[in-house]
Design brief:
alpha/beta; Double Stranded RNA Binding Domain; 5-stranded mixed sheet; two-stranded antiparallel sheet
């Protein structure tokens, strides 16, 4: 066999595995989280987090940060994005936004910090961007807490 053909075959076999997106590993410390305190004032984001945690079977709400295994911070914003350079995917939704359009994007972030001996250490964070129509079906905060629960409470 010619060396060029061997090289092409080797690249064809090795390239897909080299380019494959590595799956994010779940921090094993998540398995130790059973109670969560949601940090923040009583606003719609905190209420969404409370409702999602209460509905789930993975975590219980803690009355204060001192009695919690972890402290959750929820952030949310509404942004307007103009798509004049070309279609771009809207994160977390899987749809394309057409060129020349304006789209309102609800960005939600959940940060979970583990309470280790009185010090908070970040153990999990994720962000999602949703269109208006998707945000009305289920909030980004609720989606992220479901994802967190899946990662923390399902066996590998």
């Amino acid at each position: 066999m010619k060396p060029g053909i061997v090289y092409v075959l080797a690249m064809a076999l090795l390239l897909p595995s080299a380019l494959a997106k590595k799956e994010k590993k779940t921090d094993p410390r998540l398995k130790s989280v059973h109670t969560i305190f949601v940090n923040g004032k009583e606003d719609s984001w905190v209420t969404d987090a409370h409702e999602a945690l209460e509905r789930g079977k993975c975590f219980r709400l803690a009355p204060n940060a001192d009695s919690a295994d972890a402290v959750m911070t929820v952030l949310s914003s509404l942004e307007t994005e103009d798509y004049v350079t070309g279609p771009r995917p809207l994160g977390g939704v899987g749809e394309q936004v057409p060129v020349g359009s304006t789209e309102k994007v609800h960005r939600s972030t959940v940060i979970l910090k583990l309470n280790e001996g009185g010090k908070l250490k970040k153990v999990w964070t994720d962000t999602v961007g949703l269109s208006d129509s998707d945000e009305t079906k289920k909030s980004g905060i609720q989606r992220l807490i479901e994802k967190l629960s899946h990662e923390a409470c399902t066996e590998p």
